[in-house]
Amino acid sequence: MTAWRRPCRSTWSTRSPTTTGSRCGRTPRSSTGGGSGRLEWIGLRDTRTGATERCDADGLFLLLGAEPRCEWLPPQIATDDHGFILTGRDVPPEAWVDGVPPANLATTVPGVFAVGDIRAGSMKRVAAATGEGASVVPLVHAHLA
Ligand SMILES: Cc1cc2nc3c(=O)[nH]c(=O)nc-3n(C[C@H](O)[C@H](O)[C@H](O)COP(=O)(O)OP(=O)(O)OC[C@H]3O[C@@H](n4cnc5c(N)ncnc54)[C@H](O)[C@@H]3O)c2cc1C
Questions:
Q1: 24 CB burial (10 A radius; 0-12, 13-18, 19+)
Q2: How many CB atoms lie within 10 A of CB 26?
Q3: Nearest C-alpha to atom 50 of ligand 1 is from which residue?
Q4: Chain segment 19-68, per-residue pLDDT in tens
Q5: Which residues have CB under 6 Å of ligand 1?
């Protein structure tokens, strides 16, 4: 969630509309808001500590589902700086075998493939994810053959 325009100490976070790349804090929070005829403030409550904070705000944007959750993968599966899984030519050259990158959708571990949102550089769209899912099937078959 991003509250737009006015300064706020919250890490959750208030930022200029021209500032990109800032991430919301991972602390779970619930929110309220209000104003006279338009949004003027939001109230944030940390659901773990109960701490509350009120911030001036002219706009509110919800950014959901933008963080990968694959910390549990073994380190042999290379990821980018944001935690998305690297495949194909996105894999760093030092991890290529005999100077050849993994096949498209193939990770740094043979037989492990990544498709959809979790894949670095993917489109983050349903059609792309399902298309990649279909595309990877023959690769899995070829690996198992
Ligand atoms: C709010 C929002 C709105 C969106 N609107 C659109 C839109 O309008 N049009 C569009 O094309 N795309 C939209 N997207 C993007 C679209 O939802 C994704 O691109 C698509 O769902 C990606 O599919 P996926 O299979 O890669 O991942 P997901 O759909 O995220 O599926 C991953 C699945 O894996 C499960 N999972 C995660 N970890 C584990 C684990 N350890 N063990 C077992 N299961 C696990 C999850 O529960 C989930 O069911 C939107 C996304 C969001 C968040």
A1: middle
A2: 9
A3: 125
A4: 223 334 445 567 788 999 999 998 888 888 888 888 898 888 877 777 89
A5: 64-65, 69, 116-118, 124-127, 129
